[in-house]
Design goal:
five-stranded mixed sheet, two-stranded antiparallel sheet, 5 helices, globular
C-alpha cells in the first residue's frame, strides 16, 4: 500500500515513536500525519517442552505513558475465568472476555475447550489503523468478531438469570 508515493511502514515495536510523540502537541501533530504511538506484545508460554498458552496484545498511546486503549487475546489450556465470574461461559464453554471501561481494556480468552470458530474470533485483529490516519479507538474496530461476541454475551446475560449461587470467600463450585 502506498500513500503519496511513499511506502507505508509498520514496525513490529514502535516504542521509539512513543518517546517522539510524548508531548500533547507532538502527539496531535503525529495523529494529523497518521503516526501514533503503539506497542505490540506476543507471548508463548511453555511448560515441560509443551506450549500451554499464547497471547497477542496491542496498546495505543496518546501523549501519555498509559495506554489510551489496549486489546489482547489469550489462549490457555484452562481459562482463568469460570461460571462464577463470567456466567456467559454457559453459552460457549472455553470462550470468555474481560473488559475494563475505566482503563479502556478488552481481552478475549479461549481455552482448549473452545470451538475453532471461537478461537478464530478471539485472535481476529483488524489493525488497518496502524497505516492510516484513522485512530485506533474502538474495541469493535480492533477486535470485531470478539467484540460482537462480547456484546451478544451481554444481551444473552440480560435474558438468562444467573442462578449460580456460592458463598463469597469460598472457591467457585462450578
Amino acid at each position: 500500500m502506498r500513500r503519496r508515493g511513499l511506502p507505508t511502514l509498520v514496525f513490529t515495536n514502535n516504542w521509539w515513536m512513543h518517546s517522539l510523540l510524548g508531548s500533547p502537541a507532538l502527539a496531535e501533530f503525529g495523529r494529523w500525519l497518521g503516526l501514533r504511538s503503539w506497542f505490540a506484545a506476543v507471548d508463548i508460554e511453555i511448560q515441560n517442552n509443551q506450549v500451554v498458552g499464547k497471547a497477542f496484545a496491542v496498546q495505543f498511546y496518546a501523549a501519555s505513558d498509559y495506554p489510551e486503549i489496549s486489546v489482547a487475546a489469550w489462549h490457555e489450556r484452562k481459562l482463568q475465568i469460570n461460571l462464577c465470574n463470567y456466567y456467559a461461559l454457559k453459552r460457549h464453554p472455553g470462550y470468555g472476555f474481560r473488559h475494563a471501561s475505566n482503563v479502556r481494556s478488552f481481552e478475549a480468552l479461549v481455552s482448549d475447550g473452545a470451538s475453532a470458530e471461537n478461537r478464530n474470533h478471539a485472535f481476529q485483529f483488524t489493525l488497518t489503523c496502524l497505516t492510516s490516519r484513522v485512530a485506533c479507538k474502538d474495541f469493535s474496530e480492533l477486535m470485531p468478531a470478539a467484540w460482537a461476541d462480547f456484546e451478544e454475551d451481554n444481551r444473552w446475560s440480560m435474558t438468562h438469570d444467573d442462578k449460580l449461587i456460592w458463598q463469597v470467600g469460598k472457591p467457585c463450585p462450578y
